[in-house]
Amino acid sequence: MHRGRGLVRRGLYSTFLLLLAASTRVEAACVDPATLTHSTVSITRYFDDNEKGIRPGVLGMSGTGWFLSPTRMVTIEHVVTAMNLSEESWKPIEIWTGENKQSIPVRIQRLLGSHAEKIAVLELQAPFSEAHGFQVRPEPLVPEEPVVSLAYPDDRLRVASGRFVRYGDGNSFAGMALLELYDGDNRLVLDYGSSGAPVFDCAGRVIAVVSKLFQTTIRFMSQTTRVPTAWGSPNVVSEPIDALGDVAPRRATHVGPPVSR
User: Fold this and answer.
1) Number of domains in the chain
2) Which of 52, 58, 199, 204 falls between 20 and 30 A from 4, CA-CA?
3) Are 94 and 51 contacting, i.e. CB atoms less than 8 angstroms apart?
4) Residues 100 and 115 reside in one and the same domain
């Protein structure tokens, strides 16, 4: 289960597992990912001295977020939990688009959803310059519908495309949107730091938020290998965007020109 990316004194490492899943190959989603990069960001919170004492060696935690408006951002619940964010206190996070980096205090505005993992809406104390708010789609997904996701594993923008497979049922991921996302043959493209990433439909509307990705870890002697699930089965667990309800705009909002890449 991916829990964001931890920052350690001797480099970056994740204290959380990403769950990745799989399905049959499909063509890339029809939306041009380049048109969606303006408001998908890397978010990092560096811990203060007291917090470092609780987690020795860990300097901070990272994930992916995206904007509803210049002063509201969305990610997934376990990212804000790992960052020690709260509803009461403003705490600075570093927001990075690849070209534009700002440190802005944030706090949790709301946690929304009825599934095991909730969507987190963050309030920014000051607007993020050049932020564009994404349009969301409340209508349910259709099996085999093409989808695309943008994320910042290791502070590097990555694009993954694929399809919606089905909604989870029973006790395992009930109500969650199960997807397959990949980049060519790379089924681990959404690596550590991708939690909270937006998933878009063919029209460029947000339809889900990445929560977990399925993978298997094989250990042989001193070697550890991560193995993705086989083609033809779901590989990404995401929280459907309808959990946002009326919180999310049906039309995109923005200030300033888009950030070019």
Assistant:
1) 2
2) 204
3) no
4) yes
What does the alpha-carbon distance between residue 2 and residue 29 come to, in Å, rounded to a whole number?
24
Find, among 110, 117, 120, the residue nearest to 83 by Cα: 120
Q: Tokens standing for 178? A: 């199960």
155: three-class secondary structure by DSSP = helix
Return the higher-pLDDT residue of 28 and 13.
28
Q: How far apart are CA 66 and CA 154, in angstroms?
A: 16
Q: How far apart, in whole angstroms, are the C-alpha atoms of residue 78 and residue 3?
A: 6
CA distance 90 to 156: 27
**pLDDT tens digits, residue range 82-118?**
999 999 999 999 999 888 899 999 999 999 998 889 9
172-177 LR contacts (CB < 8 Å, sep 24+): 173/115, 173/116, 173/237, 174/115, 174/116, 175/114, 175/115, 175/240, 176/115, 176/116, 176/117, 176/211, 176/237, 176/238, 176/239, 176/240, 177/141, 177/207, 177/208, 177/237, 177/238, 177/239, 177/240
Q: Are residues 124 and 154 in the same domain?
A: no
Length of the chain: 261
- This prediction's pTM: 0.81
Q: Which domain holds residue 98?
A: 38-131
Residue 5, domain member (yes or no):
no
103 and 210 fall within a common domain: no
Handedness of CA 14, 212, 99, 49 (dihedral sign): negative
Same domain, 147 and 236: yes
Residue with token string 């990092």 = 44
Domain boundary among 131, 162, 190: 131
| Rg from Cα positions in the chain | 17
Residue 249 has pLDDT above 80, yes or no: no
